[in-house]
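User: Quick one: structure for sequence A, then sequence B.

Assistant: Sequence A:
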Amino acid sequence: MKQPSLKFVEEKYDDETVKKIVEQFQRDGYAVLPDLFQRESVDPFVEELKEAVHFDGLGYTIPQASPLHVWAAQAPRVRQIITPTLTHTAASALPSLCNTMWLLSTQDLTDQVPGWHKDREPEGMPGNEYHYPIDAFVGFYFDDVTDEKGPLTIMPGSHWDASVTPYTDAPKKKVYCRKEDGILLDQRTWHCGRPRTVPGMRYLVVYAYYLVPVHYGQVHVMPDAQREIWMKQQGRLDQAFWGGIFAPPKEGE
């Protein structure tokens, strides 16, 4: 299969831009990541998504074997920003892609739009103080988001202030981005979707990243004995204990 058309902006953010993004992420629970892709390459990429999308009986999705499935996850500016959003230490762990979710919807699938929710709960936060999240999500719409296209809506600060909930009169904010941008989200923040009210499909993908404890050494190769045990595990807890975030491949794969 040919390489996807989506082209990245290779130049890294300058230090001041990184500082502003991290500050907003920590204060509000989200930040727009500008200029991740070359704008003129986004529409051809969307055309490739249109050709690849299929209905699997439960919903629309992109085949997992297609390079389109994870292509955008490797944007250099995304990889640059993940580490400082998850840690402040200089001897930082390494960022790793741990989940991919395609949330494809059309105008007639408004019942699939999620209401107010959190995907994470605060860890070790006895009061209104900030703690780093265990992971961070980045979403791409590959479109210039407007009210008619169903923008993400969040409650700023609800990831660290437990008094900010959808059941109060606390401010709610719609998040707009351009087709070349992404949205960095702390999943402890209250957020919800909005229905698409114009024809067409919304090609939203969300990637989750976390830090793995590889600091100065090499990336580890799983010992043969551990791999042998991991490959035999069926339950979720045992698979995670022996192999980490991913389940072992099924027999014959």
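Sequence B:
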Amino acid sequence: MAKSKSMKAIIGNLTKDRVIAKRDGTFSIRRGYFYRHGMSAERFASGVMLALQRGGLDVDLVDSHDMWNPWPRDSYFEAIVRVTENPQDPRLRGILPP
């Protein structure tokens, strides 16, 4: 949980609903929607990447997708990223797996 909270702090004001730290060292960042309003999974992923780079992290985009579900289930955009910086960097303490 500390990993997800640290990543949320770095992302900042980017609209996100959920940040999940996975065991393989990747992070899943999700944003729910009811209407797309011109947004796409690629556009959301580029916003996530830009926010993380502005936060001083080097990240690779692993995947992005649009998980559309018929109402009443939730639909969301998801970007999966991996931090590629040196794991010994003190800024990354609490974010990267040991």
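Helices lie at 2-11, 41-54. Strands lie at 18-21, 26-33, 59-67, 75-83.

User: Thanks, that's what I needed.
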